[in-house]
Structures are given as structure tokens and as C-alpha cells.
Design a protein that fits this description.
The protein is of the alpha/beta class and 336 residues long. 45% of the residues lie in helices and 15% in strands. It has a domain at 34-207 and 241-268 and 306-319: Rossmann fold. It has twelve helices and 13 strands. Helix 7 links the parallel strand 5 (144-149) and strand 6. The longest helix has 22 residues, at 6-27. Bound molecules: nicotinamide-adenine-dinucleotide (NAD). Residues 38-39, 41-45, 58-62, 70, 84-86, 106-110, 125, 129, 147, 149, 201, 203-204, 210 line the site of nicotinamide-adenine-dinucleotide.
Length: 336
């Protein structure tokens, strides 16, 4: 067998690396930015980009839900690089090119129900890519603001949920991966003094939102005269939080110093799904055809945020009532 000389291998390796770097530089956007928003074509990421002209986004445009909605959002902001957070070379290039000073990490495989069907997607995006991101950031002195979730409170019954409550009873794989993020962030703080703040979002909704979430699919079905599945016979409560309030909370975190923190971002005022449906009926002017169902696997009975820590740390004061927020969403839905 003929051996390939080492210098030829080095040459091929260098050429491959160079062509990759040329490809990568082609996907980058020109501009001056100091903040990177991962999941920038996602629902929350898009709204953050719209409020932060100094931020650039990255998104893998995965097909968990209608990709055309993600491209539509990216077109509106004009600031989303197509790429994967797991791609360490690309992430390093982005951080270096723009001299990124803060990362808002919102990219994830979201959704509780889908985690029963495709657990691997959650392990990949939420755990593996999170470790890759921490590896990229460690020792760079770039604070990380990342999305956790109210789902980490799992089967806890004490309400409202506070950051100091034990979180050892997740009800879904999604919830477990979000708790894993908080634990990993602690590891990197312990080892490398990586600053981070994990935001436990409570059922975020609003215009340009996620078609997989109940407010969106209920509105669509009610408008089209189709039935909606109402789990646990409507006896489920959620602390619905309007997107603008969440974005204000996130932006608030970019203005403070932190070491290792975890913080609730919710409305602090839960509503039953029954009430929530009545607001959609009122806004659409149509009656829902309700298909009453037992509790869905992985779901929890109630989410309810104590937001006093966010109020103290970043002056967070949610403004939008569920009724007003649903009206804004339905108005957007009717026009799109
Ligand atoms: N919307 C909510 O109610 C809610 C509640 C709690 C927590 N969260 C969390 O908030 C964050 C944002 O949620 P959202 O509602 O905007 O979801 P979303 O699905 O609309 O946005 C997430 C985006 O991340 C992208 N993405 C996924 N994996 C990626 C990867 N490896 N690299 C690059 N991009 C990737 C997806 O393509 C998607 O556009 C997520 O971390 C989610 O788990 C959301």
C-alpha cells in the first residue's frame, strides 16, 4: 500500500479549511453589531432583534414548524445568519468578526409534546449545542443570557413558582433539557467564571408567534370552524406572557452585570385554558368547537410565576393583560 506523504495531507487539510472559511464568510452579514441572538429567526429571537438594532442573529431554520414563517421573520429583521450553534468554527468567526460582547441564546428545540416524539432533537439542540456554545464562550468574558423555561418547575404544586423552589420533578424531556442548561451554566461558572443568566419564560405568545402553540392553533381552528382539542377538560392554567414584556425582560438583562443567575419571566397572573379560549372567541367573534380531552402526557396543571426577582434585578413589570395580548395576536393573525 502506497502511503500519502504528510505534506500532501496538510495541504488538503488547509485547502478544505480555507474553502470552509470562504463559505462561512459568504453567509455573514455586513454591519456593526455587539450582541449575538441565537434562534434569531424564531419567535422570541425575532422580536428581540427588532428591538435591538445592535444585535445580529443566527438560526438553523429547522423545520419543526413552517419554515416560511422563519424566513419571513428573517427578511423583516434582515439580520439573521443561516447556521447552527453547534458549528464551533462559524460561532467563533461570528464572535470575532463583530467583536461580540453579549450572547442571547434562544435557539433550541422548543415544545413539550414534540419531545415525546423526537427526544433526540432536544438532546442535540438543547444539550449538545449548549455545551458547544459554552465551550466557545469560556474564557472570552462574554456574558450569556439564555432561555430556560417555566417547565423546569414540572410537577411542583407550590405556587407561585419561585427561583428558590426545588426543581427536581420535570414532567417532560423538554423540561429536563432546560434544567440541564441551568446546571451546565453553573458548571461553566464554577470552572471558568462564565457569567450567565437563565430566563425561565412562561408561555410566551404574540404576533408572528409559533404555530405549534395553543393560542395560534386555537385561533386558526376557531377562525376556520374546526374543532380544538382542550386537554384536561380545560382545567389547566397557564401564566401567559405577552412577547413585548418578555423582550423588555431580556433587554433588561443586557444592561446589568451578573455572575450566575436564574430568573422567572412571566406575567404573574395565570388564566385557565377555558378563560383563554373565551378571549379568543371574543377577539375572533366566533364560537369554538371544543373537543374535551384528558390530560396530555408531559403536561402540567399550572404555571404561575413569582416575578419579584426580575422586578428587583431589571425593573421588570409586565404590562399586557391576556385579553389585550390575545386581541393583538388575533389582529395580526387576521391580517396575515
Ligand atoms: N415561546 C415560549 O412560550 C417559550 C417558553 C419557555 C421557553 N422558551 C424558550 O425560548 C426560546 C425561544 O423560543 P421560541 O418560542 O422563539 O421558539 P422558536 O422555535 O420559534 O425559536 C427557536 C429557533 O431556534 C432555531 N434553532 C434550533 N436549534 C438551533 C441550532 N442548533 N442552531 C441554530 N438555530 C437553532 C430554530 O430554527 C428556531 O427558529 C427557546 O429556547 C425556547 O425553548 C419559549
Amino acid at each position: 500500500m502506497k502511503l500519502i506523504p504528510l505534506r500532501n495531507l496538510v495541504l488538503v487539510g488547509t485547502l478544505l479549511l480555507l474553502s470552509y472559511m470562504i463559505l462561512v464568510s459568504e453567509v455573514l452579514i455586513e454591519g456593526t453589531f455587539d450582541t449575538l441572538v441565537t434562534g434569531g429567526a424564531g419567535f422570541v429571537g425575532h422580536h428581540v432583534l427588532m428591538k435591538m438594532p445592535n444585535a445580529v442573529g443566527i438560526d438553523s431554520f429547522n423545520n419543526y414548524y413552517d419554515v416560511s414563517l422563519k424566513y419571513k421573520r428573517a427578511k423583516i429583521s434582515g439580520r439573521v445568519i443561516e447556521g447552527n450553534v453547534c458549528d464551533i468554527v462559524l460561532m467563533r468567526r461570528i464572535i470575532h468578526k463583530y467583536n461580540i460582547k453579549k450572547v442571547i441564546h434562544l435557539a433550541a428545540q422548543a415544545g413539550v409534546r414534540y419531545s415525546l416524539k423526537n427526544p433526540q432533537a432536544y438532546v442535540k439542540s438543547n444539550v449538545e449545542c449548549f455545551v458547544q456554545l459554552l465551550e466557545v464562550l469560556k474564557n472570552l468574558n462574554i456574558p450569556l443570557i439564555y432561555a430556560s423555561s417555566s417547565s423546569v418547575y414540572g410537577k411542583n404544586t407550590k405556587v407561585p413558582f419561585s427561583e428558590t423552589d426545588p426543581v427536581i420533578q420535570p414532567a417532560s424531556l423538554y423540561a429536563a433539557t432546560k434544567r440541564e442548561n441551568e446546571l451546565l451554566a453553573h458548571v461553566y461558572y464554577n470552572l471558568y467564571k462564565q457569567q450567565s443568566i437563565g430566563l425561565r419564560f412562561f408561555t410566551v405568545y404574540g404576533p408572528m408567534g409559533r404555530p405549534d402553540m395553543a393560542y395560534f392553533s386555537f385561533t386558526k381552528n376557531i377562525m376556520e370552524g374546526k374543532p380544538i382539542n382542550v386537554f384536561n377538560y380545560g382545567e389547566v392554567s397557564r401564566d401567559f406572557t405577552y412577547i413585548d414584556d418578555i423582550v423588555n425582560g431580556i433587554i433588561g438583562c443586557t444592561k446589568i452585570d451578573f455572575t450566575y443567575e436564574i430568573m422567572n419571566l412571566g406575567r404573574g397572573q395565570p388564566h385557565t385554558v377555558g378563560e383563554f379560549i373565551r378571549f379568543i372567541e371574543k377577539a375572533t367573534g366566533k364560537k369554538a368547537i371544543k373537543k374535551m380531552m384528558p390530560m396530555a402526557k408531559g403536561d402540567v396543571l399550572i404555571t404561575y410565576a413569582n416575578v419579584s426577582k426580575a422586578t428587583t434585578l431589571v425593573g421588570y413589570r409586565p404590562q399586557v393583560t391576556l385579553e389585550d395580548g390575545i386581541n393583538k395576536f388575533v389582529k395580526w393573525y387576521k391580517n396575515n
